[in-house]
Design goal:
Elements (H helix, E strand, L loop, with lengths): L1 E6 L5 H11 L6 E5 L6 H14 L5 E4 L7 H4 L5 E5 L1 H10 L7 H14 L2 E5 L12 H20 L2 E6 L2 E6 L1
Parallel strand pairs: 1-5, 1-6, 2-3, 2-4, 4-5
Antiparallel strand pairs: 6-7
């Protein structure tokens, strides 16, 4: 089953997603696709917390900061996957000084993995739902993330929202 989870930042989405990915494992490989590329101490602490949370669960961690479709070259697509998160993946792709940003390539990569992987949980943050107006570059990021989330929701079997520790089902 392909599951998309969104919600506010730092509210337990990743931990819940781990449970869902583990439930889908069925004696197959279990992958945690980590997309957060650390840029400061706060990121380091968050990554360490996520590593600690999944310790002993049997996940093989794949660090994939760019070109998400490359996981297909190194993982068994019949396994169970947790991709955490679209938010970080987009930030890596958009804000890299070493790479040219191409939104269509990100979308195509996401579609490739959703076409090949049957058991995946994708995590994202809905940081685009407030009424504030930001500088142009931030608005571009928020719009791109909203588009990636919509694309994921369209291609996933189940769409969930985590809000204040409540799980809200939007699509089954």
């Amino acid at each position: 089953m392909r599951i998309f989870i969104s919600g506010g930042c730092k509210n337990g989405k990743s931990y819940y997603a781990q449970h869902l990915a583990k439930q889908q494992q069925n004696n197959k490989p279990l992958y945690y696709v980590a997309t957060m590329k650390s840029s400061d101490k706060e990121d380091d602490e968050r990554i360490a917390r996520h590593i600690g949370d999944r310790e002993g669960w049997g996940f093989t961690t794949i660090e994939q900061y760019y070109d998400i479709e490359n996981i297909l070259d190194i993982c068994n697509p019949n396994g169970s996957f947790l991709l955490d998160s679209l938010t970080a993946l987009l930030a890596n792709e958009m804000f890299s000084e070493k790479r040219a940003y191409n939104f269509e390539n990100i979308c195509n990569g996401l579609i490739k993995i959703l076409d090949k992987i049957q058991n995946i949980v994708i995590v994202s943050d809905y940081i685009y739902n407030d009424g504030l107006i930001y500088e142009v570059f931030t608005e571009e990021y928020r719009k791109a993330l909203a588009s990636l989330d919509a694309l994921s929701a369209k291609h996933c079997d189940t769409v969930l929202e985590v809000a204040y520790t409540r799980i809200i089902t939007h699509k089954t």
